[in-house]
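Marked as duplicate of an earlier ticket. Keeping the data here for the record.
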Amino acid sequence: MTLNDLFQTDLCIYYQILGKKPIEKLKEELSFLEPYLMLPCVSRLSGISYFYEANDTKLKEMPIKRAYSKLDHSVSCAIMIYTYTKNRTQTILALLKDIGTPVFSNALDSRLEQEQGQVSCVRDIVTVIDQEKELQQLLFLDGIDYQRISLNRYPLIESDKPKLCANQLDDIFATNLFGSLSSRS
């Protein structure tokens, strides 16, 4: 998956709105994300639906308006973070924030919480990076000590509700633009 691929989809207009500039300029400014997008641990997110429960549960009667993947969501968050901070590290971390998401992500979370009291099945980002040598190398080249990564240190990327962050803003936008009545975070 490349930036060019992502920015040629029907999400192009959405990305332009989030980035507050033409797509060509946005693509140029975010070119540092290109090597990350090509990693299997990131590109696989394109196959994980952001609206899994709406796709595969009782909500089938309320079909989603458009396929929207975890990768689409991560790219949207990265665009928002870059637009408002111009900070490469935070932008990269916004793109990587969901790399620990398993295939059935939110549906498994609901099940685990009901049956085991476990809040999430998502693996910690550092645990995933520990297994990804190429990702470790890219982070090293960008001056990011992956062993010290904690998304809690970046409240613009991810924070507990009711505080707003890129993750929650995209959840609101995507649910209204692309989803059904189901909401995911």
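See parent ticket for discussion. Residues 54-60, 107-122, 181-185 have pLDDT under 50 and may be disordered.
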